[in-house]
């Protein structure tokens, strides 16, 4: 059973990108063939930002994301969507200004 992500509040901004895993094969006569890689070749990536957070909220998010850079977790990205599994891609980043934190992270949908 994987962890469940339950942030104190929803991200301030979010962007979902649908991606596909496939291999392109080009032949000398101009013919091209694309091969889907795996059963779940289409997946989502989310770019998320939480702004104007107090230090404890920002620290809690960073701790969770750093703990899940290789492990998956469950989260319902939008209230009307089913729960899906995600993994952190790259390093989450944070900045602080006037005592308020901003946290940015990219998540990739996984199928485990």
Automatic annotation (TrEMBL):
It comes from the Bacteria. Residues 12-23 have a biased composition (Basic and acidic residues). InterPro entries: Phage_lambda_TipM (IPR010265). Residues 1-23 are annotated as: Disordered. This is Phage tail protein. The lineage of its organism: Bacteria, Thermotogati, Synergistota, Synergistia, Synergistales.
